[in-house]
Design brief:
Number of helices of chain B: 16
CATH class of the largest domain in chain A: Mainly Alpha
Strand content of chain A: under 5%
CATH architecture of the largest domain in chain A: Orthogonal Bundle
Distance between the termini of chain A: 7 Å
Largest sheet of chain A: none
Number of strands of chain A: 0
Largest interface: A-B, 49 and 52 residues
CATH architecture of the largest domain in chain B: 3-Layer(aba) Sandwich
Oligomer: heterodimer
Strand content of chain B: 15-25%
Chain lengths: 306, 536
């Protein structure tokens, strides 16, 4: 197990190197000069040139790449080129906000998605099954920015139950978390349903029933435990979806997370900040996928790591 | 037509009146009788957060709206664009290059340190440091620096005679920061701003909100409010909803489409004024056939500017009749409606004179090659920018001219604006006059030596006669003479048509009707909420 973890962690290093290189390269080739953007409409070319030199933008990409990696090794993500503040600090603030939102959405996704999927399989072709399948389809089809605005209109403006945006006490979290969770929960419900259908006809399920176990006990202890592997795999991928969807959700609900930080950094061409942010997102993705792999062993004793 | 002329103040008053309607006028009359109510928090929603609250670094509107309440310049510019006392109680023009300011005595920064001549000197040295100038230095004009005469007297000196010098000293970006705080916080000063203004910095949660609290020791008229919270709500619809749920009391950059309904609703007040930004087409004169004035005149005559204003821009702005707005010093109407009325037939005749005849399918061509114009525009940068660009494209199509329109991301547009060799015929652009003086736009955008990358003459407009006029106006200290020179300069531009002006952008704020005492400012960086109160 330890060897497996070390090997996987080592494999993440080239991935992160690649991510940094791609992000730096992309920021380099997309048009739009950070210096010109910062100086605005009063600036002369002279000032732009000077600022470019000061920011180190006049040096070749390869030099900046190596330098960045050197700093990274020392745990330094660099300083924002726009306001000179440490990137790690900027990201830390935004990151806690995004994690809060993502964790809430993940919990909702798992609880709602798995429960709905399990019961839909159990009561196959019932009204519940039909309704949950239709809802899953609708949930998957609605873009989050649209769902978000509709939720705000209904729950904030009409009913006045929940705040329309911003980060604060727990009521602020409800609408964005639900909005973000809907497409993922729909996916998970569908995957859980089909995985459950596959195991509900197995002998051990029939045996459990024969021994007089309750519906819920059979479903969640015997069937789900065996059906969960593909669900966990999809959940790992959904986490990426959650991070991606967070950019839109954060915009609609004025949530001060890493998604908005990135959008703002990209439009001001603050490449150091963009690199730090993307690096963190990539790291999260790599770590969750590792966690998913480890979770297999816990869920299925037949899985052995070498 | 002297009968049709109005002064700038008349115009401001009239445009404010027409924007807000009679209801606001009566409300204003009531306000005048009601005394401001002390206390409360005003929550203002805006789409973008500041990146820094240090005016050395960030000159954007979302930042200056906030730090305009924290820092104060030597002199101030009131909403009718008159210069009044600020940190300086009086001033005297000593020479065409020097103004002497007498500082207010006993003014203290929020950290308790004195705002004296030495502190002002520190600010000028910081901003106009030739090695690492502050952002204000890029648009403050030829400022050389500041000389201390005594503890409460300073001279601001320009490198050459410069008429708008006093006006420039009134810009929000020229506010004074606490030298002690700059030394204490260093690079982090932008997160710990300290000035002399009516409000003090309290808290900043990036991308969420900035809170300011009342400066109880303010030297001037103390503000009625306890707190002002600037919230960031990036989504346009969500921002308008926050106003309706009461989560925000005031919305900046409102959704233009919702303004007519909000104006009718007694629960809201829509306050606006003509700003100092003009949205226009920049025709590239070095790019044939744009070098032919007949082609440029044909283009403006085939563009239905009035209809674009009435149907697309609507209440986001008024029909522009120059490259500067009526709230800018030196404005003179170009009379474009009578000079170049919308007349596609006449436009076709002009193009025929330039050698363009309809070919197969009605497209105009000369010597077998069709008349095709390349064009770059922005989307969502200015109200209805992409829609106007597309309407222009359609109107050119009716004329028989094909326009290849690109609407890339804004940083790409900015790059195009700054590029030395521009191979695009038409740019959809806009220019905001930061100082409220014609000099800023008429020099930066149209003088010969301002061709990019040096300045913003994206038109590549080279006209020595024009240069002479704006240069003379820059050094003259006689306001009447300057006005006359600028009128002549605008007349020259009207004849040469380097630009097709569309609209003067309005600065609009929507608020709940219990928000009282707000007066919109023509300069979009200037948000006057220090004396606002809540009449709940």
């Amino acid at each position: 197990m330890t060897r497996f973890l070390v090997r996987r962690a080592a494999a993440a290093i080239p991935i992160m190197l690649g991510v940094v290189f791609i992000v730096m390269g992309t920021m380099d080739v997309i048009p739009g000069d950070p210096a010109a953007m910062m100086l605005g409409q009063g600036a002369t070319q002279d000032m732009v040139t000077r600022l470019r030199a000061e920011l180190g933008l006049d040096r070749p990409l390869a030099v900046r790449y190596v330098e960045y990696l050197g700093r990274l090794l020392r745990g330094d993500l660099g300083h924002s080129i726009v306001d000179g503040r440490p990137v790690s600090e900027e990201i830390r603030q935004a990151w806690t906000a995004t994690l809060e939102l993502g964790a809430a959405a993940l919990v909702l996704t798992v609880v709602v998605g798995v429960t709905a999927g399990a019961f839909a399989a159990h009561w196959r072709d019932s009204v519940f099954d039909g309704a949950s399948r239709v809802l899953a389809l609708v949930g998957l089809s609605m873009p989050v920015f649209w769902t978000g605005i509709v939720f705000i209109l209904v729950f904030s403006l009409e009913l006045r139950w929940l705040p329309s945006g911003g980060r604060g006490a727990w009521p602020h979290l409800v609408l964005p978390a639900v909005t973000l969770a809907i497409p993922s929960a729909a996916t998970i419900a569908r995957v859980t349903r089909s995985a459950m259908l596959g195991v509900l006809h197995e002998d051990y399920v029939r045996t459990a029933y024969a021994k007089g176990a309750h519906d819920a006990a059979v479903l969640f202890r015997h069937a789900l435990r065996n059906a969960i592997i593909p669900v966990v795999t999809v959940l790992g991928l959904q986490l990426g979806q959650l991070l991606g969807g967070a950019i839109l959700t954060e915009t609609v609900f004025s949530w001060p997370g890493v998604g908005r930080l990135l959008v703002q950094a990209i439009s001001s061409r603050d490449y150091i900040l963009v690199e730090g942010g993307v690096l963190l997102l990539a790291a999260t993705f790599v770590v969750t996928n590792l966690a998913v792999d480890v979770a297999y062993a816990y869920l299925d004793p037949r899985v052995v790591y070498r | 037509m002297p009968g049709n002329r109005m002064t700038r103040r008349q115009f401001v008053r009239r445009s404010m009146g027409s924007l807000a309607g009679a209801a606001l006028a009566s409300a204003a009359a009531q306000e005048a009788s009601a005394a401001p109510v002390r206390g409360g928090t005003l929550t203002i929603a805006r789409p973008v957060d500041a990146t820094s609250l240090d005016l050395f670094t960030d000159s954007s509107a979302p930042a200056s709206w906030v730090y305009g309440l924290i820092y104060e310049p030597l002199v101030t510019l009131d909403p009718s664009m008159r210069v009044g006392p600020g940190l300086a109680s009086s001033w005297r023009v000593l020479s065409p290059t020097t103004i002497r300011f007498t500082l207010r005595k006993g003014v203290k920064f929020h950290d308790g340190t004195p705002c004296d001549a030495a502190a002002i000197k520190f600010n000028f040295d910081r901003t106009f440091d030739p090695k690492k100038p502050g952002i204000w230095a890029s648009f403050a004009g030829p400022v050389k620096g500041l000389q201390v005469v005594d503890d409460s007297t300073v001279d601001v000196v320009a490198t050459e005679p410069f008429a708008p010098l006093l006006l420039n000293m009134s810009m929000v970006h020229g506010g004074m920061v606490s030298p002690a705080a700059v030394r204490k916080y260093g690079a982090d000063f932008g997160r710990h701003p300290v000035g002399t203004g009516p409000f003090k910095f309290e808290e900043w949660q990036p991308r969420d909100h900035i809170t300011l609290s009342r400066n109880d020791d303010y030297w001037g008229e103390k503000p009625p409010l306890d707190r002002i919270v600037f919230k960031v709500i990036p989504d346009d619809s969500a921002r308008m909803i926050a106003l309706r749920t009461g989560e925000a009391d005031m919305v900046l950059v409102p959704l233009v489409d919702q303004l007519p309904a909000l104006r009718r609703d007694p629960n809201y007040t829509v306050a606006g004024t003509v700003g100092t930004r003009v949205v226009f087409l920049s025709l590239t004169l070095t790019q044939p056939p744009m070098d032919d004035v007949r082609v440029r005149r044909a283009i403006i005559m085939a563009t239905d500017r009035k209809s674009i204003q009435a149907n697309l821009v609507q209440s986001a702005g008024t029909l522009a009749d120059s490259v500067i707005t009526p709230t800018t010093f030196g404005y003179a109407p170009m009379h474009l409606e009578s000079r170049y009325p919308y007349d596609p037939k006449a436009a076709r005749a002009l193009l025929a004179a330039a050698g363009y005849r309809p070919g197969a399918g009605g497209a105009l061509e000369r010597g077998g090659s069709p008349l095709v114009l390349s064009m770059i525009g922005s989307r969502g940068r200015y109200p209805k920018d992409a829609e106007i660009a597309q309407a222009f494209q359609a109107q050119m199509h009716d004329l028989g001219v094909r326009v290849d329109l690109q609407l890339p991301e804004y940083p790409v547009v900015i790059n195009a604006l700054r590029t030395p060799t521009l191979n695009v015929h038409v740019l959809f652009s806009a220019y905001g006059n930061l100082t409220g003086d014609a000099d800023f736009t008429l020099v930066n955008c149209f003088e010969s030596d301002q061709v990019p990358p040096a300045g913003w003459n994206t038109f590549r407009y080279i006209n020595p006669a024009y240069d002479k006029l704006v240069k003379a106006a820059r050094v003259s200290l006689n306001a009447a003479e300057r006005k006359q020179l600028y009128a002549q300069a605008q007349d020259v531009l009207a004849r040469d048509v380097p630009a097709v002006p569309f609209y003067n952008m309005d600065n609009i704020a929507v608020m709940r009707s219990y928000v009282k005492g707000f007066v919109p400012h023509p300069v979009e960086y200037d948000l006057r909420v220090a004396q606002v109160w809540l009449q709940k």
